[in-house]
Amino acid sequence: MICIAIANQKGGVGKTTTAINVGTALAATGQRVLLIDLDPQGNASTGLGIGRSDRDRSTYDLLLTDAELEDVAIATKVPRLDIVPATQDLSGAEIELIEFDARTHRLDAAIGRHVAGRWDVVLIDCPPSLGLLTINAMVAAHALLVPLQCEFFALEGLSQLLTTVERIRSRFNPGLSILGVALTMYDRRNRLTDQVSDDVRAVLGKVVFDTVIPRNVRLSEAPSHGVPALIYDYRCAGSEAYIALAREVIDRLPKLKKAA
Ligand SMILES: Nc1ncnc2c1ncn2[C@@H]1O[C@H](COP(=O)(O)OP(=O)(O)OP(=O)(O)O)[C@@H](O)[C@H]1O
Ligand SMILES: [Mg+2]
């Protein structure tokens, strides 16, 4: 089982949209996927049609109690895609976790305890911060997928993220790698975004996925219908881009598996 955290402490860069749609595309290729919603906002849960009343057990239970992954995961409407939903309680978890000695390893331990073989890929949708929740994700993950919005300050903040990754590597998780950086919300009509995407590629090189996710209104409409864009409108430019991105993710998985 490969565990990928989708992280960037910047808000609104496309983490959740990427988690939902890459998860759906991976499931469509036959992978059994578990999405862990690690954001108190619960956007991944809502975007996959999990109502508040369906969230009896959540990521909070996984982190703060001895609940097993199998007990808290529920099926979504997408075949082969399960989710551990998030509730508001999770916003208190960062403080409550301080009580635990192994507070950075709670998620890692929960994933490690699970019965092997049920899921092929675990995706973790991180909140927009580098706090204890995201640190738990980085300790548990084999690799990070970093969505980066095509905007003027795209690279600002990335160095902070990479410093955190370096710290996690040296202290807790030496194998943590960067699966890739995905450029999101690319706007063809805006020359600046071209410039940004060129700059990002010049600085980061091959770690940047070839696929660029365009700004596409269908991607932003889908969550209010409680379905992934890939189901809402599988032929829109956004869905096509996420299918292409998932293909690149699949191409990069064998390297991770070897290291894992
Ligand atoms: N490519 C896109 N084109 C148009 N709208 C998008 C695109 N990607 C995401 N959005 C919209 O932008 C907003 C932010 O996206 P999303 O929730 O995926 O970001 P996030 O990084 O998870 O945010 P947060 O940091 O708050 O968790 C959402 O309303 C989403 O529907
Ligand atoms: Mg989000």
TrEMBL record:
InterPro entries: AAA_dom, DNA_Partitioning_ATPase, P-loop_NTPase. Residues 3-178 form the AAA domain. Involved in chromosome partition. Localize to both poles of the predivisional cell following completion of DNA replication. This is Chromosome partitioning protein ParA. It comes from Sphingomonas xinjiangensis.
